[in-house]
Amino acid sequence: MNDMRIAERTVSTNTAKITARGVQVYYGENHALKDVDIDILSGTVTAFIGPSGCGKSTFLRCLNRMNDTVASARVLGEIKLDGEDIYDKRVDPVTLRARVGMVFQKPNPFPKSIYDNVAYGPKIHGLTRNKTELDEVVETSLRKAALWNEVKDRLTAPGTGLSGGQQQRLCIARAIATSPEVLLMDEPCSALDPIATAQVEELIDELRSQFSVVIVTHSMQQAARVSQRTAFFHLGNLVEYGETGQIFTNPRDPRTESYITGRIG
Amino acid sequence: MTDASQHAAAPKSLLVADSRTRSRKAAEMRFRLYGMMAVGVGLLALVFLLTSVLGNGLGAFRQTFVQIPITLDEKVLDKSGTRDPAVMKKVTTIGYGKLVQKAIEDELAAKGIDTQGLKSKEIMGLLSKEAPADLRDRVLADPGLIGQTIAFDAYATSRVDGYFKGRVTLETAERDSNISPEQLKVAQAMADAGMIETRLNLAFLTASDASELRPEAAGLGVAILGSAYMMLIVLVLSLPIGVATSIYLEELAPKNKWTDMIEVNIANLAAVPSIVYGILALALFINFMGLPQSAPVVGGLVLTLMTLPTIIIATRAALKAVPPSIRDAALGVGASKMQSIFHHVLPLAMPGILTGTILGLARALGESAPLLLIGMVAFVKDFPAAPPEGLMQPATALPVQVYQWTQRADPAFVERASGAIIVLLLFLLTMNAVAIVLRRRFERRW
């Protein structure tokens, strides 16, 4: 929570989990994302910042091929997960999404019980052999999402009955139940109050040890608080990408500086 | 700008409405009044419909019976004494008619009722022409009755029935060639002596149709069964086809000019007059495919065609109403398109789909025009068998039965037709109630 921490962060020497080269995205005629090159590191929280419509959410949705559901979207270029091209014809987006989980802007639990919400992913991917294993996965996922203590006595209650912050943590639990390697978060705190936001941010920091987390955020304070690396998008271009401390204290590009100081955006 | 400054210069009191506010308020009041008037007109029409239907039709559920003890004489009914059904069937309703006639005359004499000089034929005229046939059916079903004296409840003829329900009076009988005031006086004396009784008649719901001359024996059995068979076919065919079509168009199909055109055409089909479907069914199912006329299977198929657009439109609306965030959530954890539809979207759309389906079925149940064209307007006396064979056998349908009965001369059929309308309305009311209950039951918030 302390903005002063950013300067103290150590440089990570983690390996690249996702490498993107020359990524272009078109929505019909609209060229939404232009020539993005980025390496997303493992065990790191990477924040995407930038003004509305700059393409940061679009790029995030390319990483687990959620853009496939938009009929007019076309993705060109190369995105590799552990060296494998995720846009290869042989890749089934379903298996990709089990490895690259996603948490959305608005908490969207299924209108089912808390247990079923978390158990759904493992069930459809056949990750568990019996009920005991499934129970275990549900418990660990809820624990990792820091929700277990609050809901352990009412796992059969509907997930939609939880508070907004709890719902979002339930969605995080649901996303990590399939043991993904990368967790994508699209403005996960924008619908939450400050206390719930703090809880989710704390959680993100803990998740870093097991997943690479990519978070899109509108709040520069949030990016500074939770991320080790930050990418600044503007008008469909990736303007600057680097260590969070460096981006916020010593940006190289004048556009980044203008955005951070509040002159554009 | 000058305007604004004038307003600012002369602030008005909040307590006094200016002319503009007053006229806006008056317009609002007028609009409210129009609305209330419209609702009032609608309610009046409903009240009028219900009173006229109930007033005319409730009588159909009650029936006047003449109670006579009949001695089933073996010499008349089974001369050989073998109780062989084939032999017994040789005794026609004429033979039974004589028995009935003797029994009623004996009973009148025993009760000391003045027959006002009526001839035997006129006394028999108090009873329905169905009475001897009823008796015959009863004896053939249970030959053990022969030789005994049984209590027989014969239908009174429609005019006598009408007399006890207030439809026929001594004055109208004067002008009526089917009944005379003397006959009615005898009937009244019989009622006083306890021989005639008007009571609940469930046979109206279970019996089959009867001929022009015996409205008292006509029932809705075949029509209810025929309608039920058709609804079964409509449900079994239109729900899966309609839901599959909607899912494909809404969730899977690419959005291009072809799907646009299909969409427009489905919307248009929903507005096609139902009789057009009848012509289609006549040409396609009967003339081309050679399915039997008057059969519930053809009726069911044509009603399916008619109901499909309604179901598709309702289902697509229900699918559209499911928030996209639920689809995203399912896809986000790695569900396939089909899994996201069947595990999440469809259950959430279910109340809307069921409501649309039931309303479509209700519309199909009340439809008569296309059935007229495929021959379901025939006079059907025999009950169709149980499905599946029964689906190919002739039957009628409730709305067609109403139409048929209103065409007949005897005023007793007006009562029957109104009674059938009551039954039809009850079915529709039940279906709508089920739709509401289902919607409430499955409704979920997200």
Automatic annotation (TrEMBL), chain A:
One of its GO terms (molecular function) is phosphate transmembrane transporter activity. InterPro entries: AAA+_ATPase, ABC_transporter-like_ATP-bd, ABC_transporter-like_CS, P-loop_NTPase, PstB-like. It comes from the Bacteria. One of its GO terms (biological process) is phosphate ion transmembrane transport. SUPFAM superfamilies: P-loop containing nucleoside triphosphate hydrolases. Residues 18-260 form the ABC transporter domain. Keywords: ATP-binding, Nucleotide-binding, Phosphate transport, Transport. One of its GO terms (cellular component) is membrane. PANTHER family: ABC TRANSPORTER I FAMILY MEMBER 17. NCBIfam families: 3a0107s01c2. This is Phosphate import ATP-binding protein PstB.
From TrEMBL, chain B:
It is a multi-pass membrane protein. It holds the Pfam family DUF3333. The keyword Transport applies. GO terms for cellular component: plasma membrane. SUPFAM superfamilies: MetI-like. GO terms for biological process: phosphate ion transmembrane transport. Its main location: membrane. Keywords: Cell membrane, Membrane, Transmembrane, Transmembrane helix, Transport. It is found in: Cell inner membrane; Cell membrane. Residues 224-435 form the ABC transmembrane type-1 domain. GO terms for molecular function: phosphate transmembrane transporter activity. The chain crosses the membrane at residues 31-54, 228-249, 269-291, 297-319, 340-362, 417-438. The keyword Cell membrane applies. Belongs to the binding-protein-dependent transport system permease family. CysTW subfamily. This is Phosphate transport system permease protein PstA. The gene is pstA.
